[in-house]
Amino acid sequence: xxxxxxxxxxxxxxxxxxxxxxxxxxxxxxxxxxxxxxxxxxxxxxxxxxxxxxxxxxxxxxxxxxxxxxxxxxxxxxxxxxxxxxxxxxxxxxxxxxxxxxxxxxxxxxxxxxxxxxxxxxxxxxxxxxxxxxxxxxxxxxxxxxxxxxxxxxxxxxxxxxxxxxxxxxxxxxxxxxxxxxxxxxxxxxxxxxxxxxxxxxxxxxxxxxxxxxxxxxxxxxxxxxxxxxxxxxxxxxxxxxxxxxxxxxxxxxxxxxxxxxxxxxxxxxxxxxxxxxxxxxxxxxxxxxxxxxxxxxxxxxxxxxxxxxxxxxxxxxxxxxxxxxxxxxxxxxxxxxxxxxxxxxxxxxxxxxxxxxxxxxxxxxxxxxxxxxxxxxxxxxxxxxxxxxxxxxxxxxxxxxxxxxxxxxxxxxxxxxxxxx
Length: 422
Description:
Blueprint: E1 7-16, E2 36-45, E3 48-54, H1 55-61, E4 70-72, E5 77-80, E6 82-84, H2 96-103, H3 108-113, H4 117-127, H5 130-146, E7 149-155, H6 162-178, E8 182-190, H7 201-218, E9 224-229, H8 236-248, E10 252-257, H9 265-272, E11 276-279, H10 285-294, E12 297-300, H11 302-308, H12 315-320, E13 325-327, H13 340-351, H14 355-362, H15 364-368, E14 387-390, H16 395-400, E15 407-412, E16 415-419
Parallel strand pairs: 1-4, 1-5, 6-7, 7-8, 8-9, 9-10, 10-11, 11-12, 12-13
Antiparallel strand pairs: 1-2, 2-3, 5-14, 14-15, 15-16
């Protein structure tokens, strides 16, 4: 007896499944292969995909039951749900006044001395209740969902003491429990040195290692540990100690690497077996090659370069050397970008990525950047039904319409969480 679907999607103009070669991140020329089915269809049962093919094939399996809920999407493009694999979703306050000062020519240090910058966010995050942090983050999350996200990684890193890092991670867990969109928690206690430890970075590293990581691990609050490995913040050896401690505690690893100077963050990410190294504007060729050999994904964040008005990461070099590339928004108080669509357009315009490469980088490769490649990121039988229907006819159209939200329908874990469907 054929299993009865909970939902059928049929008459899809173009169904970009990305199902070929999905057993690992895509590299090189394979990043342009979206495995498109014309007049496609998908059958969903209990949050999982149970059939994929053209409409005639899929419908023939269920033709005897015309009571199955069905949605038709002619002339539309359907892709896997977007995966934002690097965000700072939870924080207190906002930084629009910093933005105005920056436009007026104030330097970062001048903004910091005026009470702005990360110290502003630290102060507001520490003074905010769990409910206040969750309410603000929920608004951001709703916008991200309506922009096609079905998986979002979310970091701590604005509490910078035991109590407030735990508070941020508990907010992330609560958000995950409220939505069908998956929110993946990352501990980023090593994001900056808090003011009470100014001039004592080593003591703060000891706090992260000896108190934060064990407490977070005991409470099962973070899947990943990340470190801002940067000159003047956390040097390579300090970052290594934190990452190895987190790995021993059972966390997977990520690294903010080589964003501002060529410090060796890419090499460190490869050495410790990090799942991804992110930013990489200044990464050395040796570091990128080490990442390629180690299987570490390069997660690029073009909106950060846009917001800081700096150069962009060399995506073309990375792709040409067969390093797997993912894209993410880096949504944070200094880069208030909630849109993967904007991120994808920037990747095309400023990093010279192909429109099909950016879809791969925002779906299957981003899935692997959060250890979800066997669960989501492509549309194939057995995977979770995370699916995005777009108001556009083909992959190239997405980045051509830069600045537009092309979302028509978002399905997360088999549930319709947003739709314009009539």
